[in-house]
């Protein structure tokens, strides 16, 4: 990621240099704007990755959530079947991961319930031991954690947070591909203009007096590299 950022900045410098000779070129101006945007996005992504590394190195959110819920579930007794009513909100255990999620009671039977998890349409049968009052899972967080989601929502919160980060990564990748294509098109068109050579400044010179790297003279305050011819090595010398 850091290498990409350096590459984008180098491309931006080259576009800005080209704009000095053609300041009204709309294509160059658009390319400059796009490069500035992708540089900003890349810098933001690098900061996000650094933040994630610190979080994962200090604790695992899923493990912490599971431990908290396990301790909470063991401490809270269940309600009798007669105390549950159709339409009542509750926290029910999802069999796939054993975590409790917010749901609505749809059916009350002799020894079990059927619930519908929020965001889903199917009914799921749950035992009396796998359902609890909504209040038991939505306690106010401890001091310093007011900005975090309550325990009953932690799993879903982490899932959504991960999805947002994945979308952000995808957006950055699309920006990269777009900028790469624009940069290639810019160089292709520039090489076709009359009087503009497409050969690299680091290619071999066309004549004996030519110097490799002559196109870099004056950059960063450095003069053109001087060429000093060496003496021809003679057989038997030395």
UniProtKB/TrEMBL annotation:
Its main location: nucleus. CDD domains: Tudor_SMN_SPF30-like. The keyword Cytoplasm does not apply. One of its GO terms (cellular component) is nucleus. Residues 158-168 have a biased composition (Basic residues). It comes from the Eukaryota. Residues 83-141 form the Tudor domain. The keyword Lipid biosynthesis does not apply. It is found in: Nucleus. Residues 142-157, 170-182, 229-238 have a biased composition (Basic and acidic residues). Keywords: Nucleus. Residues 131-238 are annotated as: Disordered. InterPro entries: Tudor. This is Tudor domain-containing protein.
């Amino acid at each position: 990621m850091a290498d990409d950022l350096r590459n984008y900045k180098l491309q931006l410098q080259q576009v800005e240099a080209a704009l000095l000779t053609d300041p009204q070129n709309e294509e160059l101006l658009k390319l400059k704007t796009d490069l500035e945007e992708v540089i900003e996005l890349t810098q933001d992504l690098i900061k996000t990755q650094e933040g994630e590394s610190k979080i994962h190195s200090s604790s695992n959110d899923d493990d912490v959530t599971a431990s908290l819920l396990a301790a909470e579930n063991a401490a809270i007794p269940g309600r009798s079947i007669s105390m549950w009513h159709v339409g009542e909100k509750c926290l029910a255990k999802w069999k796939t991961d054993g975590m409790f999620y917010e749901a609505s009671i749809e059916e009350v039977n002799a020894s079990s319930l059927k619930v519908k998890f929020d965001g889903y349409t199917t009914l799921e049968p749950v035992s009396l031991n796998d359902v609890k009052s909504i209040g038991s899972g939505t306690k106010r967080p401890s001091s310093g954690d007011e900005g975090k989601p309550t325990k009953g929502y932690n799993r879903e919160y982490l899932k959504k947070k991960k999805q947002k980060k994945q979308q952000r990564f995808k957006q950055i990748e699309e920006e990269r591909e777009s900028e790469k294509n624009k940069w290639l098109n810019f160089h292709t068109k520039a090489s076709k203009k009359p009087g503009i050579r497409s050969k690299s400044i680091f290619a071999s010179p066309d004549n004996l007096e030519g110097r490799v790297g002559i196109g870099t003279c004056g950059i960063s305050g450095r003069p053109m590299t001087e060429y000093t011819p060496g003496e021809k090595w003679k057989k038997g010398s030395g």
